[in-house]
């Protein structure tokens, strides 16, 4: 069993591959690929307490299928087909729906969100949307999303369902998210 509580370098919480694997056991070997970039993203976006980290890792775990998916599985499904031409997503050019499909561990979707995320991270995501499929970009975009939606405040207040609503627009997968959150709190030493 990994040691509880993670550990800190300065004020930055570091999550080990073993801890990540314990939180999202279906990640398997991918935990080793994601531990360092997740820790870096958490440091950059002030997800630096065990309580914040537990909520963040639980949401990332659910949204990414336990680190299996950094890119939306494309059908296109009827919902995905509706991405095309959606002005609210900034998808104004032909092909934008598929080009700017959900990517990252908390999936960034739509041209407008890729532009905003790219500006926030200093990356050209319009020319290179695939950067969000790589561990570093996938983790940084999740941290950027978390930060721009002020989710640290909700994590500090223990408002996990409200975090789910801000990420998902509803309560889709809430039971799984809560199970991952309970596991993350246990592993990271967050009191219940």
Fold topology:
Layout: E1 7-9, E2 12-14, H1 17-23, H2 30-44, H3 50-63, H4 78-81, H5 96-99, H6 111-121, H7 135-148, H8 151-156, H9 160-168, H10 174-188
Antiparallel strand pairs: 1-2
Helix pairs in contact: 1-2, 1-10, 2-7, 3-10
Describe the structure.
This protein is mostly helical and 192 residues long. The chain has 2 domains: 7-70 and 135-188, Lysozyme (Orthogonal Bundle); 78-131, no CATH class. It is built from 10 helices and 2 strands; from the N terminus they run E-E-H-H-H-H-H-H-H-H-H-H. The protein has helices at 17-23, 30-44, 50-63, 78-81, 96-99, 111-121, 135-148, 151-156, 160-168, 174-188, and strands at residues 7-9, 12-14. Helix 2 runs parallel beside helix 7.
Which key features would you list for this structure?
192 residues; mainly alpha; Lysozyme; two-stranded antiparallel ribbon; 52% helix; globular
Please state the structural category: mainly alpha
Portion of residues within helices = 40-55%
Number of strands: 2
| Main sheet characteristics | 2 strands, antiparallel
Q: Radius of gyration from the CA trace? A: 16 Å
CATH topology label of the largest domain:
Lysozyme
With strands numbered from the N-terminus, the spatial order across the biggest sheet is: 1-2
């Amino acid at each position: 069993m990994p040691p509880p509580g993670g550990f800190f370098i300065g004020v930055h919480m570091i999550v080990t591959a073993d801890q990540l694997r314990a939180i999202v056991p279906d990640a398997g070997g991918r935990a080793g690929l994601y531990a360092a970039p997740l820790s870096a993203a958490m440091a950059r976006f002030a997800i630096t307490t065990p309580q914040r980290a537990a909520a963040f890792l639980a949401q990332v775990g659910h949204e990414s299928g336990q680190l299996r998916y950094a890119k939306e599985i494309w059908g296109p499904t009827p919902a995905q087909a509706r991405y095309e031409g959606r002005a609210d997503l900034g998808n104004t050019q032909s092909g934008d729906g598929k080009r700017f499909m959900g990517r990252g561990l908390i999936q960034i979707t739509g041209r407008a969100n890729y532009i905003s995320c790219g500006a926030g991270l200093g990356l050209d995501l319009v020319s290179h949307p695939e950067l969000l499929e790589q561990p570093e970009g996938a983790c940084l975009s999740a941290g950027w999303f978390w930060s721009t939606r002020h989710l640290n405040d909700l994590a500090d207040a223990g408002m996990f369902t409200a975090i789910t609503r801000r990420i998902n627009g509803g309560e889709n997968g809430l039971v799984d998210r809560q199970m991952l959150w309970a596991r993350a709190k246990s592993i990271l030493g967050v009191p219940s």
